């Protein structure tokens, strides 16, 4: 991807949001994510 586009993924620590975030990163997007609760964030 020549010009990186920025994408916001809400619910990035959920199942769907996490998989979407990973796929967008693979495709070259610059990704920002929001989460509901910091205590639910895993290190993976």
TrEMBL record:
InterPro entries: NAD(P)-bd_dom_sf (IPR036291), NmrA-like (IPR008030)
Domain of life: Bacteria
Species, as recorded: Mariniphaga sediminis
Name of the protein: NAD-dependent epimerase/dehydratase family protein
Domain NmrA-like: 4-40
One Pfam entry name: NmrA
């Amino acid at each position: 991807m020549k010009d990186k586009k920025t994408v916001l993924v809400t619910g990035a620590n959920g199942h769907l949001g996490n998989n979407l975030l990973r796929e967008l990163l693979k495709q070259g997007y610059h990704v920002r994510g929001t989460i509901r609760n910091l205590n639910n964030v895993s290190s993976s």
